């Protein structure tokens, strides 16, 4: 066994030495003037925002700005491509929120949850139930906060008892939470809509451009808020819990309190995403919201992007949704597309455990050498 | 009343026997390697479909292989597939539990999509042994009865292997303490190989009979896997004895819920039992406490 593992390790290091490193150096040589040119901007950024969201190098700032500009100008360039990119990118924004929500809890604390689709479902189903059961349907300003609150309540209901458990037991309980939610929608189909769910939720708008911005802006706000939290002391404690929980309690901090905070924060984020998804398509049903596959997809997005970061899950979600809905669709049929997609995820899991976007981010940050 | 009680006892026993097989495989892999193999469910589904493929007269136009041949071949194929999963994937990532967890889930979903692509989402009904027999006023299909009997034969053989032979005892030793086992000269690689082979074989066996009982569908593995989870946690992760007892507990709970409350409530009660057990007795009936390193 070890012989083969070693042979693969040798192969990997040969590839790294003869292909990756030289081409990396060449790329660095090309990019470093750009990096230097952007450095004044980065210095300005670091001075005003660095303490809240972390420091960047010139090139990293350039990448961020380029990505933001690309996202903001989607209605201008998306119609040039074949396919429905406006819709796909709007969906990707919602899934970015889900992936970030999962990551702020599971990625940072290391307590891997398989139950996050239940949290978004709590928000979605609350919205749907309010729309179905109240005869003048209350305005968005009422239903949205109530739905997010419902996600938070369910999150605490799951989190309070299950965070006492650790390792695989925690994952199992959260997995069970999803299954239980699914069973309940089937078991109480008169109240919860059964397999078909509800189609009564009012859609924000069918206008592609408007809808896209309605999804993009909350996503960016959530990302900014989570970045501030993750860069604060709270984020540090959460990572410390993942690395060594006993050391955290030895330092006089209560890990349970912090884990619960991360769960609450994550539930609110999932609630926001759930509400957006409900108003995006107008239907709330088990396949869109509850089933285990949805949880697995969010996890896959966060992991291929890079766990315990904020940019990672966003990048992962966009990559995943673009591959699923547009790029792979060009070549493959329905089930082949999924097989290819999962195969790619598997490859990233095995060969780039820390995530693609984290790797890119650090590679870009390393251009021009260490400055810290 | 007595009749329905008897019928619950009998149908419960049939389905519990299959749950026990699934749970034992799942718990053995966790006990030895510390790997939570979520792809175990995919092996169950694959078992049913491999049996279907081999059983259709595809080899020569009109000559179907006798089921007596097809059955062990299908079980063997699934055993090998399980080992292939270990040798081809899990071995490289088992040092990181999170990645292992995710990778096996991904394998399971991927297998489902492959099955969907090849067979479509229509259920494929078949039986392993056709016919029915009345036992104490309850009609039991030969398929379920054969599953029940073979399950106990398999469990008996496994018990003999684990407690009476050196090869089996090394598995037991490795599941107690990997380091201790290594120090006494146990070849961990061979232990893991055998564990994955056995677990795969048991999953294949269970899958073939489950498919024969209900029909093969690409998503038929999700419920049994969820039940295997529940069973393993109630019985104690890593304990074979606990798995068997918990399998019967859950099997009977399921049968009772279905006959009292109806099909749509299947599973809810078991999930609630699981939650109660987890909070009162996190290490299960016979389990060792999971040490988080």
TrEMBL record, chain A:
InterPro entries on file: ABC_transp_permease, LivM-like
Gene Ontology MF terms: branched-chain amino acid transmembrane transporter activity
Keyword field: Cell membrane, Membrane, Transmembrane, Transmembrane helix
Bilayer topology annotation: Multi-pass membrane protein
Domain of life from the UniProt record: Archaea
UniProt subcellular location: Cell membrane
GO CC annotations, alphabetized: plasma membrane
Transmembrane portions of the chain: 56-78, 84-102, 114-134, 140-160, 172-192, 212-239, 260-278, 298-323, 335-352
PANTHER family: HIGH-AFFINITY BRANCHED-CHAIN AMINO ACID TRANSPORT PROTEIN BRAE, HIGH-AFFINITY BRANCHED-CHAIN AMINO ACID TRANSPORT SYSTEM PERMEASE
Name of the protein in question: Inner-membrane translocator
Organism: Haloterrigena turkmenica (strain ATCC 51198 / DSM 5511 / JCM 9101 / NCIMB 13204 / VKM B-1734 / 4k) (Halococcus turkmenicus)
UniProtKB/TrEMBL annotation, chain B:
Keywords: Amino-acid transport, Cell membrane, Membrane, Transmembrane, Transmembrane helix, Transport
Domain of life, source organism: Archaea
Pfam families found in the cross-reference section: BPD_transp_2
Keyword Cell membrane among UniProt keywords: yes
TM region(s), chain numbering: 7-32, 38-56, 68-86, 98-119, 140-162, 195-212, 224-251, 263-281
MF terms (GO), sorted A to Z: transmembrane transporter activity
Membrane topology: Multi-pass membrane protein
A GO CC term assigned to this protein in UniProt: plasma membrane
Keyword Glycosyltransferase annotated: no
One Gene Ontology term from the biological process aspect of the record: amino acid transport
Compartments, record wording: Cell membrane
Family, similarity comment: Belongs to the binding-protein-dependent transport system permease family. LivHM subfamily.
This protein's name: Inner-membrane translocator
Organism: Haloterrigena turkmenica (strain ATCC 51198 / DSM 5511 / JCM 9101 / NCIMB 13204 / VKM B-1734 / 4k) (Halococcus turkmenicus)
